[in-house]
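note to self: dont lose this again. the chain is below, predicted strucutre after it. 124 aa total, dont forget to put it in the shared folder this time
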Amino acid sequence: MSEIKRKIMVVEDEESIREIYGDYLSEYDVALFANATDSLAKITEVNPELLIVDLGLPDMDGIVFIEKIRATFSQKLPVIIISGRIDIEYCIQANGQGVTDLITKPFDKTQLTDLVKRTLPPLA
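---
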């Protein structure tokens, strides 16, 4: 019997970075999206156990996107934010939205996979 893969939704506007996520997280069922609008439209269908989101999305501020996820999908969905720049104000805003963790670009495979393993909720 094959093991069911854990579901992760990744929202990243840079195609090359999205490909890296797909490669680094190949042991999971990863749904990759280039923008917030498309991912919001599909989040119920994907039903992720973890959301990884770049704060610098082209169509919506990352914090606003997380607020929408919290309002429409789940208050408890673990969220990892990833950005090329992390400032204190953004960290405070992200914490207010219940962001689980953050990581800055560039990152390596071990950093990302270790963070994902720590952040995914335990299997029921």
